[in-house]
């Protein structure tokens, strides 16, 4: 019996709406698979909690989360609370304290109609971005000197440690070797004359241990162009924290939008829980209206199943997303349909029953 304890942080805006659908998927899985059981503990943390308490999470929030097998997060941030406070005190705090230094963001076209790119189909848009998730431009190092004075100076320092850079690049090489795919490093050494020169050197150095992996290295500006014009160049991609953030929204744009883009924040050593989330934000413009697409949040449940070693369920969820994408009526407005978040969730679970892994332990509905 695989028993997993899941911490839920639905968060702000559309976060609770999409997490609710992901949780229903998990409950359906445990209902049909006698080998699996989940327990859920929900935490009320987020911007409303901040307005009530002056904190984004409980004082001992990190300690409380430590005992879980996974964290399932919706979105964080809402008008009224400055973004740098809400994100730094909750989402980024968890990524950092739990050393979730790998951020896995698949950019995979699941239906030909979903890309705005002419003449590109599923086989040309299928990459995995491995984003450094613990330091770099997100180190939070800097200063604000002479605030409000004419001589005001603001410093935001990128921090690229040998340990941090090597481990993410090595992780990416391992993944490329395992999947027998090419590996592309995306950096910017022409302008960032310390950090990215170092990044490129480490990429070459670590590569000596992986002569079997075919590599490419692009500057981030050119890589952005290729993402749009020749996405088939990319299979496994490794890049820094900020570049990975930006490139994966671009990746979402070429594969159906933010309503479909998922991400896993992984602590590979499993010393701490990993965290699964859609990569979109709280979408205040559509919150509370039943318009949010829950498929990104559901895709991140597929990543959670893979992380739990339940890859059959991981792929069953992905195939179900693929299938539902051809049923326009079942989709939310961002994908051209007229369904609500909940209606899409209901239809999804009906279909998933038929994709349930085929072994005798599973009773199919
Ligand atoms: P956003 O991702 O919330 O929204 C961008 C656009 O995409 C909006 O038009 C929105 O309606 C649309 N969209 C996003 N998710 C959707 C979904 N599931 N279905 C349909 N449409 C969807 O980005 P933003 O507006 O720049 O940020 C809003 C807030 O969220 C800010 O406070 C920001 O800091 C925060 N944010 C949080 C996360 C996170 O928690 N992981 C990620 C990004 C932004
Ligand atoms: C993401 C988000 C976060 C990031 C923000 C909300 C801090 O945009 O997960 O992509 O930049 O990592
Ligand atoms: Mn982002």
Automatic annotation (TrEMBL):
Source organism, top-level taxon: Bacteria
EC number of the protein: 1.1.1.83
Keyword Manganese: yes
GO molecular function: D-malate dehydrogenase (decarboxylating) (NAD+) activity; magnesium ion binding; NAD binding
UniProt feature coiled coil, ranges: none
Cofactors: Mg(2+); Mn(2+)
SMART domains cross-referenced by the UniProt entry: Iso_dh
Domain Isopropylmalate dehydrogenase-like: 5-348
Reaction catalysis annotation: (R)-malate + NAD(+) = pyruvate + CO2 + NADH
InterPro entries from the UniProt entry: ICDH/IPMDH, IsoCit/isopropylmalate_DH_CS, IsoPropMal-DH-like_dom, TTC_DH
Keywords annotated in UniProt: Manganese, Metal-binding, NAD, Oxidoreductase
SUPFAM superfamilies assigned to the protein according to its UniProt record, in alphabetical order: Isocitrate/Isopropylmalate dehydrogenase-like
Signal sequence range: none
Family: Belongs to the isocitrate and isopropylmalate dehydrogenases family.
Entry protein name: D-malate dehydrogenase (decarboxylating)
Species of origin: Rossellomorea vietnamensis
């Amino acid at each position: 019996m695989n028993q997993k304890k899941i911490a839920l942080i639905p968060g702000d805006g559309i976060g609770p709406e999409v997490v609710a659908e992901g949780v229903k998927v998990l409950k359906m899985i445990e209902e049909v698979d006698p080998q699996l059981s989940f327990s859920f503990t929900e935490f009320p943390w987020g911007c409303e909690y901040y307005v009530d308490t002056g904190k984004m999470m409980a004082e001992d929030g990190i300690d409380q989360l430590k005992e879980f097998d996974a964290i399932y997060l919706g979105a964080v941030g809402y008008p009224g609370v400055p973004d740098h406070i809400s994100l730094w005190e909750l989402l980024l705090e968890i990524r950092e304290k739990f050393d979730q230094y790998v951020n896995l963001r698949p950019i995979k076209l699941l239906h030909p109609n979903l890309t705005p790119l002419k003449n590109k189909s599923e086989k040309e848009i299928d990459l995995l971005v491995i984003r450094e998730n613990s330091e770099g431009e997100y180190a939070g190092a800097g200063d604000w000197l002479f605030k409000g004075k004419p001589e005001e100076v603001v410093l935001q320092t990128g921090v690229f440690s040998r340990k941090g850079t090597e481990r993410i690049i090595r992780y990416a090489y391992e993944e490329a070797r395992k999947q027998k795919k090419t590996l592309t490093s995306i950096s910017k050494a022409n302008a960032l004359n310390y950090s990215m020169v170092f990044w490129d050197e480490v990429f070459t150095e670590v590569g000596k241990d992986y002569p079997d992996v075919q590599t490419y290295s692009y500057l981030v500006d050119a890589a952005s162009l290729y993402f749009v014009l020749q996405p088939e160049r990319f299979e496994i991609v490794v890049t820094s924290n900020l570049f990975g953030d930006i490139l994966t929204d671009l990746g979402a744009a070429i594969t159906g939008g933010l309503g479909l883009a998922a991400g896993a924040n992984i602590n590979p050593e499993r010393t701490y829980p990993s965290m699964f989330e859609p990569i979109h934000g709280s979408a205040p413009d559509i919150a509370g209206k039943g318009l949010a697409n829950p498929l990104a949040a559901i895709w991140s449940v597929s990543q959670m199943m893979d992380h739990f070693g339940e890859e059959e369920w991981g792929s069953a969820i992905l195939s179900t997303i693929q299938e539902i994408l051809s049923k326009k009526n079942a989709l939310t407005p961002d994908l051209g349909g007229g369904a609500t978040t909940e209606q899409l969730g209901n239809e999804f679970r009906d279909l998933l029953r038929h994709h349930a892994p085929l072994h005798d332990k599973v009773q199919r509905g």
